[in-house]
Amino acid sequence: SGAPATFAVLGGVRPRWIVPVGKPQIARLLSSWRPYKLSSRLGWHALCGAARGGLLHHLPGVKTFTAQGGDWRDFGWEAATPPLTAFYVGTAGPQQKLIALLADAEDGTPRLIVKFPLGARAWRGIAHEYETLQCLQAEKRFPVPAPVHLDTDKRFAAQSWLEGAPVGTG
Predict the structure, then answer these.
(1) Sign of CA dihedral 72, 76, 78, 79
(2) How far apart are CA 137 and CA 154, in angstroms?
(3) Which among 22, 54, 65, 126 is placed 20 to 30 Å from 120, CA to CA?
(4) For residue 43, is pLDDT > 90?
(5) Nearest to 135 by CA among 122, 125, 152, 147
(6) Bridge partners, 116 (sequence order)
(7) In sequence order, which ranges of the chain are alpha helices (DSSP H)?
(8) For residue 24, how many other CB atoms are within 10 A of its CB?
(9) Exposure string (b/e) for 54-81, b if CB count within 10 Å is 16 or more?
(10) What span, in angstroms and rounded, lies between the C-alpha atoms of 62 and 18?
C-alpha cells in the first residue's frame, strides 16, 4: 500500500512516537506501552484517550507530516491488508533504535515489531537479540517473541509481538 498517510509526532523536543492521524485503532497499540513513572503513565493515558477520540493532532506540541507508505511485506508482514503502523524512537545514544510496531488495521491489535539501528552500536544489539530469540524458540522456552526475519544487508530484524508487563527496576 503506497498510499500517503498523515502522522503525528509526539514527545516534545526529541520525538519519541510517530503515529498515524485519524486512526482511532492506534489507541489499542499505544495502550500496550506502559511507562514506569506514575506521572508519565497519567500523561500517557490522556494521550491514549486523545488517540481513541481521533484528536492526537490537536494536542499542544504535536507536529504532523504526510508520508508515502511502503510495503511492509518486505519486513515480514504477511496479512493481505497493510498494517496500522506506529514508530517508537528509542533513547538517544549508541544503542538507539527505531522500532516499528505493526498492528491489525481493523482493530489495532499488535502483531509484529521491526527494529532498525540508529545508534552506532544498535545493530549489534538488534542482531544479538534476534539470535537469542532463535535459541529460546529452539529450546522451546515460552513465551518469547518469535523471530520472524533478520536482514543483515538492510540491517533490520522483525519479531512477533508479545504482550508484556512492567516489572520493578530496583
Answers:
(1) negative
(2) 24
(3) 65
(4) no
(5) 147
(6) 98
(7) 26-31, 38-52, 122-138
(8) 13
(9) ebbbeeeebeeeeeeeeebeebbbeeee
(10) 10
Q: What percent of the chain has pLDDT over 90?
A: 36
pTM of the model: 0.85
Q: How confident is the model at residue 166 (pLDDT cuts 50, 70, 90)?
A: low
**pLDDT band (50, 70, 90) for residue 169:** low
**Sequence-distant (≥ 6) Cβ neighbours of residue 88 within 8 angstroms:** 16, 17, 33, 98, 99, 101
C-alpha to C-alpha distance for 170 and 160, rounded to whole angstroms:
28
Please name the residues in contact with 9: beta carbons below 8 A apart, sequence gap of 6 or more.
Answer: 15, 17, 18, 62, 63, 64, 65
Cα separation of 96 and 34, whole Å?
A: 19
